[in-house]
Design a protein that fits this description.
The chain has 291 residues and is mainly α. The protein is 58% helix and 5% strand. A four-stranded antiparallel beta sheet has the order 1-2-3-4. The protein is rod-shaped. The two termini are 76 Å apart.
C-alpha cells in the first residue's frame, strides 16, 4: 500500500476502489460470474461460452497438464476447459491469489487458517464436484478475511503512528511555550524588566506619566531596590512594594512570590487606593519613612 514511509503502509479513503478490486474479490467475482479472473495484474483464466481457456499464467496450465507458453501471433485459440477441468483451473487460480494475499498481509495478521485452506485446496487434482467447490469457496472467504484483518491492522498502525506524532508535536509546542513563558518571567523579574513593567502599567492603567513614575522609582528603590525577592528582616515586608504581610499580594495573583509583575500590580493598586498617586506616596515616605 502507498505511504509516507517504506515500513508503514497507509490505508486511505482514496484506496476504496482498489480495495474493492482486491485479489480475493476478483476471485469471488470470477467464481460467481464465470468472467475473466485476474491474478497479480495478469489475465490468467478467461471463460467464454461456458468454456475456460488458459491465458498468461503458465503455472496454472502446467498444473492442469495443458500446453502453455507465450501465444504466437498466429495463434487463434486456446484449449477450452469444461466441467471438472474448469473447477480445477479455478482452484489453481484461487490458490495463486490466496498465496499473494498471504504474502502481502501485514506481519501481525494471523494467516494460519488461510494456510490450512490453501493446503486443503492443493489436493484439487484429485477433487471434483461439491467438495472442490466448497474448498474453493472457503479459501476465497479465508483470503478475504485475511485481507480485511491486514487492512485493519495497517490502519491501526497508521493511526497509532499519527497519534504519536501529534502527541510529540503537542509536547514540543507545550515545551516551547513553557520555555518562552519562563524567559519572559525571568526578563520581567530583573530590575530593568520590573521598571519597564511598572512604567507601562502606571501609564496604561492609571494615566500616570513620567513625573509620577519618577516618584514611584524613588519610592520602590528605597523600599526594595526593585528586588522581587526582597524581605525586610525587621518586619517581614516582602517584594518590590514591601507588602506587609507579603501574602496580601495574593489578591493580584497566586504567583506573587515569584512574579515581579504580580507584585507591581498589587503595589500600584495599593498606592492608588491609599495615596492617589506615586508622588503622594513618595512624599509620605520621605516624611514618615514608610508608606
Amino acid at each position: 500500500m502507498p505511504g509516507p514511509t517504506p515500513d508503514l503502509p497507509i490505508t486511505t479513503a482514496s484506496t476504496r476502489r482498489e480495495a474493492l478490486n482486491s485479489p480475493s474479490r476478483r476471485v469471488r467475482r470470477a467464481l460467481r460470474h464465470r468472467a475473466t479472473l485476474i491474478v497479480g495484474g495478469a489475465a490468467v483464466l478467461a471463460v467464454a461460452g461456458g468454456a475456460l481457456t488458459i491465458g498468461t499464467q503458465p503455472a496454472i496450465g502446467e498444473a492442469l497438464g495443458m500446453p502453455t507458453g507465450t501465444p504466437s501471433a498466429s495463434a487463434t485459440a486456446q484449449p477450452a476447459l469444461h466441467g471438472t477441468a474448469l473447477d480445477r483451473a479455478q482452484a489453481a487460480a484461487t490458490i495463486s491469489t490466496a498465496k499473494t494475499v498471504m504474502a502481502t498481509a501485514n506481519d501481525k495478521t494471523d494467516t494460519a487458517s488461510l494456510e490450512q485452506h490453501i493446503d486443503a485446496l492443493s489436493d484439487y487434482p484429485e477433487l471434483s464436484g461439491a467438495e472442490l467447490t466448497t474448498r474453493i469457496s472457503s479459501t476465497v472467504a479465508s483470503a478475504a478475511h485475511v485481507e480485511l484483518a491486514s487492512a485493519t491492522q495497517d490502519k491501526r498502525e497508521v493511526d497509532a503512528k499519527a497519534a504519536a506524532i501529534a502527541k510529540a508535536a503537542a509536547e514540543q509546542q507545550a515545551a516551547a511555550e513553557a520555555a518562552e513563558a519562563a524567559r519572559k518571567l525571568a526578563a520581567g523579574n530583573t530590575v530593568a524588566g520590573a521598571k519597564a513593567t511598572a512604567s507601562s502599567l502606571a501609564s496604561s492603567e492609571y494615566g500616570w506619566g513620567a513625573d509620577q513614575f519618577q516618584c514611584l522609582d524613588n519610592l520602590w528603590t528605597k523600599e526594595s531596590g526593585w528586588n522581587y525577592q526582597a524581605v525586610n528582616a525587621n518586619g517581614g515586608a516582602t517584594g518590590i512594594p514591601q507588602a506587609l504581610p507579603g501574602s496580601k499580594m495574593a489578591t493580584a495573583g497566586s504567583d506573587w512570590q515569584t512574579n515581579a509583575t504580580t507584585q507591581i500590580k498589587w503595589g500600584l493598586q495599593y498606592i492608588s487606593a491609599a495615596y492617589g498617586t506615586p508622588c503622594s506616596a513618595w512624599a509620605h515616605s520621605q516624611a514618615s519613612n514608610f508608606y
